[in-house]
Specification:
Layout lengths: L4 E5 L7 H7 L5 H8 L7 E6 L4 E4 L13 H5 L1
Parallel strand pairs: 1-2
Antiparallel strand pairs: 2-3
Length: 76
C-alpha cells in the first residue's frame, strides 16, 4: 500500500545563512503555509539530502527560531 509523504529537497548553498540568502531567497512562513494547505494534515514531512541519497525527518524539536544579523541594515 502506498502512502503520501511530503519531501522537501534540501540544497547546500553555503556555510552560513548569509551565503544561502545570497544564492536565492528562502520562502517565508506564510508562503510555506500556503504550500502545505493542499496536503492532508496527517502527511509526514521528510527532508531529502544529496538528491535523494539520504533522508531526514522533520520533528518539532528540529524546528526553532534563530536570530541572524541583517547585513542590509548595516549597509544603509
Amino acid at each position: 500500500m502506498n502512502k503520501e509523504v511530503l519531501i522537501i529537497e534540501a540544497n547546500r548553498e553555503g556555510y552560513s545563512i548569509e551565503q544561502a540568502e545570497n544564492e536565492r531567497t528562502a520562502i517565508t512562513v506564510g508562503e510555506l503555509m500556503r504550500l502545505l494547505e493542499d496536503f492532508d494534515e496527517d502527511t509526514k514531512i521528510y527532508i531529502s539530502n544529496d538528491r535523494g541519497y539520504t533522508y531526514g525527518s522533520v520533528t518539532e524539536r528540529r524546528i526553532h527560531e534563530e536570530w541572524v544579523e541583517d547585513e542590509s541594515e548595516e549597509e544603509a
